[in-house]
């Protein structure tokens, strides 16, 4: 029999439960702090496009704050948030306690140490060549690697102790995601093959493997656990999930070259990347279909369950964002969209509309189960709608603006016209960004209520099985 | 345990094999790419400038890769593998909020322009959204010996004192001016997409006769080319920047009936000329390699008929004749 998300956890004492809840809470609180900080910086960056002389001093200059925004959303917010969820999911779906509570705390300390040190280093101008998402000086990236190793060890230890026969699918994604990311971190750091164009090849590899083999599998792991849990029904097809896992592994690592289309990288590397960008439709559509079919017939229930709404948006974000990525990867489309703000729109549709919403959905669904404290319904609703509308405005504005920018270039207008044409879209991005940021403040309040506050008034995130629906 | 080992171990192994094949092995190979003809390593000062460039995140807004697409022609010839042999860390970039800088050392060879622009981009390009880098400059009351003050236009200069570049600014500008492409005969539009944009400038209006004095040239094209190539120094108003870039409005070479000097300057650039009694120390770049005879005719005619100038128009044939005479 396949393991289900409702595995027994008889082997777990109340004290183990409290320790797990404390770990989960601490990771969530820590991630939330990074989200607030990193997106406050993001909002400031957005503002600077309209007011380039605003706070242009050395430590506040655009080029130092931008990598702080990206690295801290990546490694502070999304990574820490996803690892906290992964621990909870691993322990619960394996019907056991965490392998080591202590290692979990050490990991949290290392993740935070890396993010704090990385932020300071970038502020001081220690930026490794503006190589996106790996700008931190290498010793700091080694601290991050240490955090990953600790996490991997702990997750494996937990799953190895499972009381079920099968390994639940979520754990495939999270355990392997951590292991793959250790490889990514090592490959990105070793210097011997990173000279000139060789480093360009690694940059391309790194950019999409960091998102595709780290955030994506961890977020998908959350889906596989949280959706069945909320709906009290098993995942539509376990086999499809396994199939998506292996195809994701075979196709995703090969598409990094699409970041450097039309560059002097070998043509075969670029073409391979395009081919596998198309092949990615298989795991993306297969995976998304699996989630949506699990929710089939229960869409009306979403109105009762904001956690499910968050996850629904995240699934759609995954589906649309990735499909958009495939379209974007064709040479004919790249000729227009490459190097424009359209890419920034794609980055946020995926990292925000998919990953960030997945983390939120996971936290709202699972943290109340761990701590027995819920946020208010109004709080979740406010967070949801502000984040959704805000990111919608953000992505639409940059998609339209980026297309206009690309067409200006295509028509060989003076460069500066592409700058002036973007101005209104940058304003809209700022307006969307403001809503997004405000929603994060509400989220922080909700997290406080789920961890330290009184029991709130939101209903249980878990929906009862409705008659006949789960047959 | 066995099952866990199979899944995690198997997936890890598969991943390592793929990563070797798609990233590490190609990177080993590409790291050995020999430098192209004439490509030289950076000097110590330029390398310091490259570090200033990375530390302040210039690469988040500027690329250094010219694609084999018609739209990228303004930035130079398509980048070749050998161009990057000495570029570690690589600074190709992934976003063009600002223009590509692969050939900025040729297109804006004037250190004065670079300093003014870094001090306040809006002093030379009013629509710019590039941040100012005033923190790379000192403001002093008296210019120390051996230093030269940056001639920042009055509206953008500090109320008191003179602006001089710090060592970091000097290194950065030395680096920017080193960014040039070495000629590579026959290396032009080679990508499959080269032809894709051929239909693009269809929107250009038919040649219009400017109101003043029977000019017959493509006025819209002339203005657009002027904005793209010249206005950063000579300004959209044609008034230049006092002490740094000469005005073209009422300029003797531009407003003369014989267009030879005007055309010659645009083709071959200029350096150290005294214009209207002012000696200019900064450099005017040559455009012979980038602009066709017809384009140059459009630009000079735009200048000859704008801002109150009324000189006789030039033709593409005039440009060809001056070009044939050489520098
Ligand atoms: C209040 C919310 C946010 C705002 C206002 C915001 C704003 C920005 C801005 C202004 C940029 C620079 C774009 C440019 O250089 O043209 C940026 C880049 C980026 N941000 Fe955000 N951001 C927000 C949230 C997030 C979150 C939560 C994530 C990830 C989880 C994220 C990931 C990124 C990434 C990956 C880039 C680089 C994009 C690229 O190079 O294509 N952002 N953001
Ligand atoms: C099948 C799936 C996907 C494909 C084919 C794809 C394709 C692409 C392409 C072609 C680019 C380069 C755009 C350019 O430079 O012009 C890009 C950039 C990016 N993608 Fe994706 N994408 C996919 C899924 C995702 C997912 C799921 C995420 C996030 C978890 C993501 C995050 C990003 C980010 C952050 C960038 C910006 C990189 C940078 O330039 O800094 N993508 N994607």
TrEMBL record, chain A:
Keywords from the named record: Electron transport, Membrane, Respiratory chain, Transmembrane, Transmembrane helix, Transport
PROSITE patterns in UniProt: COX1
PANTHER family, sorted: CYTOCHROME C OXIDASE SUBUNIT 1, CYTOCHROME C OXIDASE SUBUNIT 1 HOMOLOG, BACTEROID
Transmembrane annotation, as ranges: 20-47, 74-91, 103-126, 138-160, 172-193, 205-226, 235-255, 267-293, 305-321, 349-370, 382-406, 426-448
One of the GO BP terms on file: respiratory electron transport chain
GO-annotated molecular function: cytochrome-c oxidase activity; heme binding
GO cellular component: membrane
Origin: domain of life: Bacteria
InterPro entries noted in UniProt: Cyt_c_oxase-like_su1_dom (IPR023616), Cyt_c_oxase-like_su1_sf (IPR036927), Cyt_C_Oxase_1 (IPR000883)
Cytochrome oxidase subunit I profile domain: residues covered: 205-448
Name of the molecule in the record: Cytochrome-c oxidase
TrEMBL record, chain B:
Alphabetical UniProt keywords: Electron transport, Heme, Iron, Membrane, Metal-binding, Transmembrane, Transmembrane helix, Transport
PANTHER family: ALCOHOL DEHYDROGENASE CYTOCHROME C SUBUNIT, BLL4482 PROTEIN-RELATED
The protein's name: Cbb3-type cytochrome c oxidase subunit II
Organism listed in the record: Rhodanobacter fulvus Jip2
TM helices/strands, residue ranges: 7-28
InterPro entries per UniProt: Cyt_c-like_dom, Cyt_c-like_dom_sf, Cyt_C_IC, Cyt_c_oxidase_monohaem-su/FixO, Cytochrome_c-type_DH
Keyword Transmembrane: yes
Domain called Cytochrome c: residue spans: 44-180, 217-307
Lineage: Bacteria, Pseudomonadati, Pseudomonadota, Gammaproteobacteria, Lysobacterales
One MF term in the entry's GO annotations: electron transfer activity
Translocase recorded as keyword: no
